[in-house]
Model the fold of this input.
Amino acid sequence: MAIRIGLIGAGRMGATTHAPAITVREDVVITAVYDPLPAAAQGVRDKYHAAICASAPELAARADVDAIMICSPTFAHIEGIRAAAKTGKPIFCEKPLCRSLAEADEILALLKGYQAPVTVGFVRRHGAGQQKFHEIVASGVLGRLRIATAEMMLGVFKRQEGDWFADFARSGGMVLDMFIHHFDLFNWSFGMPQRVYAQSTMLSRDQPEPADYVSGTMTFRNGVICNLSGGWLRFGRGNNYMDVYGDNGCVSYKWGAPEVTLTLKGQEPIVYKTPEPLPVFQAEDNVWLDAILGKGKVKVTVEDGVNAVRVALALIESAQSNRVIEL
Done:
């Protein structure tokens, strides 16, 4: 018996990323699609023979939809979650979970006690290298943890005015859309931060073209101080890495690289090879699909998704107010 998926959002993440990742499985079919852009919905219909729906509620309520994937733009996630939550069906929602704290609180209320598997698309938790990095941090080999760093400088931003990605009010900019990956990963290792401080351009219209930059600091309750630097930029180098330092050494990882480096005090670096057994989005989707079948649990919960949003919005609030924000 196949899992019949209803796809909300037929853009880059829906049609190009997740649809191919789930349909490599013989036990998954896409039976319905909703996207406000007719051409996008038509593309999924043509490729997967899915029925086109006129709204998220219509899709969620269909008898031939067993589970719902929400891959719409950030500001529209709440629409899909509201519709899906009424049905009791399994839900996958791309990150970030929502755009505001009010929406985050609403989602927690809607999904309190929800019985079907629900997860949020923090794909990096499912990468082999990222899992090894987390394992090393959690093992205690670094000794008392002191410092963490994250850099996500992306010099290939092409979005222009009129694109929702370039609209800070809709996307939350680099902080909410992209750096939130690192916030989730640090929450995974350290728990929620105690306080944050940041400065950011936040896709200011004063710039000649849309670009974004954030510099920030997070202090965790276990004492770890984390320095952040990230940007959606129009040119220059691209980098995407994180480090954790303890009294005994450090561990470093660059996202997408097939290796993690552990450097202990007075020793030569140890390089752990971490080839991906599956494409990472396929690995991510498989965890949710298998949970639907009763084969394990999701790795990322709704609470994880909300906590990452809270960190991102606290950093944005700090940058806007030039204040330290307590969490």
